[in-house]
Specification:
This protein is α/β, with parallel strands linked by helices. It is built from eight helices and seven strands. It has one domain: 3-Layer(aba) Sandwich (Rossmann fold). Helix 1 links the parallel strand 1 and strand 2.
Length: 247
């Protein structure tokens, strides 16, 4: 039997990259997947690709930083599906600058999507989780939450904040049989990494004991494990999927 059979799973930022790999993995494991993404064009393409392979999938355009948009997303889910079993808070953006050059707008936008968005979506999803069966919240952190990274004051702050919220929610929601964990990917092949110069890439890979970048599917596998009953006694933890970068 598939590990996520008949589960209702929401994947924010599920149109591409790690989110897409996670949506594909969850659908292959029997879940009905709602892809929630700001990019409706790519989101629909991804949903159609999953559907073509036999997966159960839906797409909803959402701005996770906007409470009204998030409310519309989960209102539709309640009307069409009646509940949420799994939420993957994967949506995130980058707007890098050094501390000296970073303006307030760049700081606020990243905080709004990467941190506030996780709060808004989790709050809405928990309200739709079955009080008897419980549910699973999975938050996207990053290796840089542990190490810091040059030029990423805003991004690192959000990814470290996500780990903190994960710990709080694990304590608050455990009594409702809701497990909350985070995944901290390292250097993963995505659209964001395509344009990295070879010299910079070589420097990055020198920090990875396994000596290579990770694949989106490897992060998706970690999410699938944490979403499944195989992880039924795991909550409040952060799983590093980073090739040993943080040791």
């Amino acid at each position: 039997m598939n590990r996520l059979q008949d589960k209702i799973a929401v994947v924010t930022g599920g149109a591409r990259g790690i989110g897409k790999a996670t949506a594909e993995k969850f659908a292959a494991e029997g879940a009905t997947v709602i892809i929630a993404d700001f990019d409706d064009q790519i989101g629909l393409i991804t949903a159609n690709e999953i559907s073509a392979t036999g997966g159960k999938v839906d797409f909803v355009k959402v701005d996770v930083s906007d409470s009204k948009s998030v409310g519309n997303l989960f209102g539709m889910i309640e009307q069409n599906y009646g509940r949420v079993d799994i939420l993957v808070n994967n949506a995130g953006i980058l707007m890098d600058s050094t501390l000296k050059k970073m303006d307030e707008d760049k700081f606020d936008k990243v905080i709004d999507v990467n941190l506030k968005g996780v709060f808004l979506c989790t709050q809405a999803a928990v309200a739709l989780m079955d009080p008897e069966k419980g549910g699973v919240i999975l938050n996207a952190s990053s290796v840089v939450a542990h190490t810091g990274n040059f030029g990423q004051t805003n991004y690192v702050a959000t990814k470290a904040g996500v780990i903190g919220m994960t710990k709080v929610w694990a304590r608050e929601l455990g009594r409702k049989n809701i497990r909350v964990n985070a995944v901290a990917p390292g250097f993963i092949k995505t659209d964001m990494t395509v344009g990295i110069p070879d010299k910079v890439m070589d420097m990055m890979l020198q920090r990875v004991p396994l000596g290579r970048m990770g694949e989106g599917t490897e992060v998706a596998d970690a999410y699938c494990f944490l979403a499944s009953d195989e992880a039924s006694y795991i909550t409040g933890t952060t799983l590093n999927v980073d090739g040993g970068t943080v040791t």
